[in-house]
Amino acid sequence: MEDMILTLAYLIGAGLVAGFLAGLLGIGGGIVTIPVLFILFDQLGTPIEWRMHAAIATSLAIIVATNISSVLAHHKKGSVDWGIIKDWWLLAAVGAVLGSIFATTLKTVELVYFFATLAGFMAVKMLFPIEKWTLGKSLPGGIFNYTNPGIIGFFSALMGIGGGSFSVPYMTLYSVPIHRAVGTASFIGLVISVAGGLGYLVGGQGIQGLPAGSVGFIHLPYAVGIAIAAIFTAPLGARAAHKLPRAALSVLFGIFLIAATFRLVNAV
Question: Alpha-carbon distance 159 to 45, whole Å?
Fold first, then answer.
């Protein structure tokens, strides 16, 4: 009984924080839920070789719920750039499917350190929100308009983070205002989570040792528990984002990336 109460507390707490961050930063909250899920899957006796995969897949399922709520909140504020989404969504989805398939070939430790390296580079840009730190006045066209959204989808699904951790810094490097980047990233994250989650669902079929209640790598009871809590706080995060100045939001995002990276590394 005590274990059940503690597990429930973990799920609700992770959901509340993940939902708020989804609205505040345009992320899916996976960086919060993955370490918690990793610990819970350890307690369930999930084999170490599949523990991170289960955490990532379940995180992506949760992100579907958090980002739907976040998108609606940001859309009401007019901060979702539907032009960018029109160009990106299909490519990001294809990249996410490929990333989720590739993840099944990696070990748990490899997945964690893969994220740590990429997140570190992104954090540097966000911690020093200097206007001249841009690569252009608009998002690149040509071949990059096709490859870059796919790459973001690939690495986001690979790490179960929804996309905002990569797409927000990327968009700000090309002069997209931080509030618009956060709002747009929430929708891109929704696309990535759906596509990537399907990839993990299929990739986890037939894997031995996954806990009861799993569909592929996705553990439905944990996904539902966290998602229910997250839905309530995502709109609160979105409202908070629009009250913060641009520089403060950018620095907050950078601090978040560093803290989340250390937390994930320490989880393995």
Answer: 22
* Backbone dihedral angles phi then psi of residue 161, each to the nearest 5 degrees: -110, 0
Note down the domain range covering 21.
2-266
Phi/psi of residue 215, nearest 5 degrees: -120, 105
Q: What is the pTM of this model?
A: 0.79
With H, G, I as helix, E, B as strand and everything else as coil, classify residue 184: helix
**21, 25, 27, 31: CA torsion to nearest 10:** -50
Residue 241, C-beta contacts closer than 8 angstroms, at least 6 positions apart: 23, 24, 25, 26, 74, 179, 182, 249
Name the burial class of residue 11, with classes exposed (0-12), middle (13-18) and buried (19+) by CB atoms within 10 angstroms of its CB: buried
Number of domains in the chain: 1
pLDDT of residue 148: 92
Rounded Cα distance, 130 and 175, in Å:
11
**Mean pLDDT per 10-residue interval, the chain, length 268 residues:** 76 82 70 83 88 90 82 84 93 94 83 74 69 75 88 87 79 86 88 92 90 93 89 81 72 75 68
Q: What is the pLDDT of residue 1?
A: 62
Predicted local distance difference test score (pLDDT) of residue 129: 59
* HSE-up (13 A, CA, CB side) for residue 20: 9
